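User: Run a structure prediction on this.
Assistant: Running it now.
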Amino acid sequence: MSEIICTVDVVLLTLHDHRLHVALLKRDHAPFAGVPALPGGYIHADEDADTRDAAMRTLREKTGIASPYLEQLATFAGPGRDPRGWSISVAYYALVPSTLIDQTSHPEVVMTAIDQLKGLPFDHRQIVDAALQRVRDKSSYSSLPVHLCGNTFTLPQLQNVYETILGEPINKVSFRRKIEELDILEAVEGQMETGKAHRPAQLYRLKKQFRQHLALTDRGLNSTA
């Protein structure tokens, strides 16, 4: 009996030009050599403490990025997902601001708009779709989208990120009330965004305790209740 292939795959997401993009790299060996795929790799039993550790190592080695937010997505397994044999992959998803991609990623990393994805190998399209659904679901009641922002941002910029992910406008008053309830932000003292057509806007940053953990609300961000 052949050994089961054990791997991790990471869906690395960022926002660019108001569209969600995912990180892809061309595979350097068979199967599917030369085909863009999700960053992934074997679990190293003598090195990785768990699958999260394996995902963090793989993401760092394959993309050069240490994501501030990484969450387990799901397990994908079966005899038909990999032509080499029965395989199991524990998938994770990571959210990073586009500035981090520009500053630290390897040149081989290609950020591709999700609505332009085609021809992904294995079951990577299924993994991407699952990650996208998870992100949209959690964005409706949590602080998850903040991890797509840079170090500092204005409230209108943050609202735009939420609206882009959810695909719908959000009532400004309701949004700000929910953000206050989440209590995840702190104003950057003395820093304002200037040079825009509108009046200067206060810059905020994520509180330290929420950089790797989410804050949750029991009502949707678009709720008026």
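The longest strand covers residues 5-16.
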